[in-house]
Structure formats: structure tokens, C-alpha cells
Amino acid sequence: MNRGFTLIEVLVSFVIITTVAVIGVSSLIRFRDSRALDIEADKIISTLRQAQSKARNQEDNTRWGVYFHNSINDNYTLFQVDEGQVGILDMPSTGVSEVTTRLASEVIFLDPAESSFKTVLFSKGTGLPNNPATIIISRIDNEFTANLIVSEQGLIEKE
User: Fold this and answer.
1) Is 142's pLDDT higher than 60?
2) Domains of the chain, with CATH numbers?
3) CA–CA gap between residue 18 and residue 45 (Å, rounded)
4) What strands lie across the sheet with 116-122, from one edge to the other?
């Protein structure tokens, strides 16, 4: 009576284990990639809500907004509007920016479009946006995207 495994049994076992491992690792990588995008979306939503809260509470008696800049260094800036500069675009200027955050290296803006910007402003007192807006971010490989919506009623959510 022979004890042990034949070469065929060992090879079949090896193929099964390898297949399960490859599927598991690829699923883990996809999960990690989608999670990185979710984390970045949550950070942007947090910044939008912070601007909305500051405007609603009339902090520094000004409007607040978030400026999204799609450039080589994709970033967004929480800022207060310098109410004294009439006729200037509502965007960050010297001395009124709170904080600028750069997107994670694997995440890009799809909207605003490349080499452009978008500003979301909130009215002081009400915290309502001046205009509804959609910010779209994606992984560099465009496999995953997230739509960040600021509704006319001031609701900020991720789709």
C-alpha cells in the first residue's frame, strides 16, 4: 500500500491554491483603490461642509467657499470671500485662504475640466450655495469615479 500524493494531485492542489490567491489579491487591490477614492471624496465633502458652516455662522462676517483647481497639482482651497474687492472673481486671494489641500497622487479631477477651476460659494447667514455644483473625481486609471453634489438647497452628498 503506497502512502502519499501523486504528482497530478500535487499539481491540481497547487493550481487551485494559486487561483484562489490571485483572485483574493486582485479583490483586495480593487477594494484598496476604491477606498482611496472614497477617502478623498470624504475629505472634499468635509471641506465643503466646513465652508458652509462658516458661512451659516457668519464667521468673520463674510461668505465662505471652496475653490477647486484642476492643474498639475490638483488642489482645493477653503477660503473666505474678501467682500471689499468688488468686481473680482470670487476666488481665493492673498490673506483670505484658510487651507489648501492637494488631491492624493492617485486621484484626479474630471470636473472641473483640465486646466480650469470651479468655485462653490456659500451665502453668509443661510449657508446656501450661490449655485448648485458637481465636482467629479476619479482614480488616475478612471476605473472608479465619485460625483460630489452641492444641491440648490445646500445638501452636500456623494453619488
Assistant:
1) yes
2) 7-158 (3.55.40.10)
3) 41
4) 97-102, 75-80, 64-70, 116-122
Share of the chain above pLDDT 90, in %: 55
**Distance (Å) of CA 58 to CA 17, 50, 63, 106, 156:** 61, 12, 7, 35, 19
Nearest alpha-carbon partner for 93 in 117, 54, 131, 67? 67
Side chain identity at 78, as an amino acid letter? L
Distance of alpha carbon 121 from alpha carbon 83, whole angstroms: 13
For residue 15, the one-letter residue type is V
DSSP state of 154: S
Q: How many CA atoms lie within 13 A of 113 on its CB side?
A: 0
In whole angstroms, how far apart are CA 42 and each of 7, 12, 118, 120, 133?
52, 45, 18, 16, 16
Kindly report the pTM of this predicted structure. Answer: 0.79
